[in-house]
Amino acid sequence: MKLRVAIIWTSNDKNWLGGRNYFGSLFSAISAVAPKNLQMVLVKGKKTITSLPDEFRWLEVLDTPILDKNYPLQIARRLSLRMFDIDPILDNFLGKNKIDILSHSLNFGKKNKLKNLPWLFDFQFMHYPEYWNPKQLRWFDRNFKAACQNSDGIIVSSEDALRDLKNFYPDFKKPMHVLPFISNRFKFETLPSKSEILGRYALTRDYFYLPNQFWIHKNHKLAIDALVELKKIGVEATIVCTGNRMDLRHPRHFSDLMNYCMQKNVEKNFRVLGVVPYSDAQGLMAYAKAVINPSRFEGWSTTVEEAKTIHKTLLLSDIPVHREQSPLRGHYFSPDHPEALANLIRTCMSNETADMPSRDLIEAEYNQRLLKFGRSYLSILETLVPNWLPIY
Q1: pTM score > 0.90 for this model?
Q2: Where are the alpha helices (DSSP H) in 169-310?
Q3: Residue 296, SS3 per DSSP
Q4: Are residues 43 and 112 in the same domain?
Q5: DSSP string covering 338-377, please?
Q6: pLDDT tens digit sequence for 123-182
Q7: Same structural domain for residues 116 and 214?
Q8: How many Å apart are CA 368 and CA 102, to the nearest integer?
Q9: Which ranges of 98-133 would DSSP assign to H, the alpha helix?
Q10: Would you say 73 and 91 are in contact if contact means Cβ atoms under 8 Å apart?
Q11: Domain match, 340 and 219 both
């Protein structure tokens, strides 16, 4: 039996870098363990801009306008889901293409003919409703509830998220699967040298790296306040940031942060590079004194996973999921206390930068984690189709 598993991708790569990296990692893991009788299918809008099909040429790709925003049938789908909790247009499309399982989507509606395995990426909207407007909160609540009601199982990325799922949706009795993801491969072959990175971004001294999108829950302000605390005692530190500057929930968030930087006179210490090529992002991480993630909430942190791959020192907000990710060189601070982060930065500045392990060790460890990730996903698929036997 040939098992055909579809994953829908409707975001342009740059609009959701974390999601793009997640699916890149997932497809790499599947490729490493995939049996001959498994076909992964990427379903995307005709207007969706993504490099996933070029990177993973073994994917079958289906382009359809029913996923494109404001296309008449996409509008009809949205209304049908909202009013009747059904999506016959997508159901029919997937059925015609002989899809057996729809994986990692949210609500697919009831009465569909194939297995549905949503991925609930995190429950931030429950913990921090103040970061969202009422319309957004209703959207999340409606779609998460419907995903639970209409699915054949749920994927979450952490034990912390599993606790949230059980707490917020106690009536959900279908199988719940924890599938922690890993980072993308560290590409030594395209890694710039340290002198190239320092020159390209005009970095004149040791720096700390904060590679988070500028979304309000990522808590960049705490990092700025830590720089202010250091400056009070005559310590000049540099934090280099990369990531998308736009938070659609709070369009003024980035400009407010930059104004705050100027008011506190640390704009030269808080360097914002925006979205940079992935090879440069890996270089910035490799040569940093340490990597910082001050976030108030994560489903499973890509930043932590990327840094873990090369055994980088991590300065992390003390939230449950960061503890669960348990990096070898992790140090923790309260996300409400910039003084604690400032102390960790100061300690790192006075210590020698930890050497990165050899390429052979990094790649060997990564391959082991990749196989585990891929096998864990396959085992979830097998629970949905008990009569399917992988053929290698």
Answers
A1: yes
A2: 194-200, 220-232, 253-263, 278-287, 302-309
A3: coil
A4: yes
A5: HHHHHHHHHHHHHSPPPPPPPHHHHHHHHHHHHHHHHHHH
A6: 999 999 999 999 999 999 999 999 999 999 999 999 999 999 999 999 999 999 999 999
A7: no
A8: 27
A9: 124-127
A10: no
A11: yes
Is the CB of residue 239 less than 8 Å from the CB of residue 270? yes
* Same domain (yes/no): 375, 332: no
For residue 236, give both structure tokens.
């000049």
Total Cβ atoms within 10 A of residue 65: 12
Q: Which residue has the tokens 């982060």?
A: 341
237 plus 307 within the same structural domain: yes
Instruction: Report yes or no: 191 and 233 within 8 Å, Cβ to Cβ.
Output: no
CATH number at residue 345: 3.40.50.2000
The pLDDT of residue 369: 97
| Exposure b/e, 355-377, CB count within 10 A at least 16 = b | eeeeeeebeeebeebbeebbebb
114 and 7 within one domain: yes
The domain of 294 spans 188-350
Each residue's pLDDT tens digit, 206-255: 999 999 999 999 999 999 999 999 999 999 999 999 999 999 899 999 99
Encode burial over 194-227: b for 16+ CB neighbours within 10 A, e otherwise.
eeebbeebebeeebbbbbbbbbbbbbbbbbbbbb
